[in-house]
Amino acid sequence: MMETNNDMEDGEVESDLSCYRVLSSKTLADVVEALIDLPPGRLTDLRAAAVNNENFARVAVKHKLHVHLRHGSSALEAQIREFLKEVRDELLKPGFNSFGLGDCKAPKVLGDIFESIDGAIFLDSGRNTTVVWRVFQPLLQPMVTPETLPMHPVRELQERCQQQTEGLEYKATFEMAILPRKEVYIDGLQIGSAQNPQK
Description:
The protein starts with a helix and ends with a strand. By secondary structure, the protein is mainly α. It has a three-stranded antiparallel beta sheet with strand order 1-2-3. Helix 1 packs across helix 3. The chain folds into two domains: 143 residues, Ribonuclease iii, N-terminal Endonuclease Domain, Chain A; 41 residues, no CATH class. The chain is built from eight helices and three strands.
């Protein structure tokens, strides 16, 4: 029997939901004791760092799952190669975390590989999250913990400005460039600017 687009879309939704459900609950359950003393917002940061397409794409690359991807797109192949290079470059910088703000966004298909395998195991195991976690927990090592989770640089800037009652302002400029340039101001003084396909 041939699968229709609706069947495949339903399968993708199911695998996305199971992946999020399993990894969100299990990741957080494993560190719940450490989370008791976390200030508000860090729990959200922890979940966002552990359960996102960027992280799943890195897991897929780390375990070389991307080599099994079959496609006929030279553009996708170029995106994957560029992402692999960025991941390798990041590994050379101890303590570096791109927070998804690097020059190269992870191709969604890489995270989808991870989510699809998660969804298949979830369904094959009769929707048993314990089985899924037993398979995926070793793949996710090293896991983000409250101790290893750095603060997102944008959030860190916002919190510092709030504590020191400084006025923080972002301005987007649209010149001839394809991407808008974001400028950052503190108390009216420009302190930086950046251009990135992500906000």
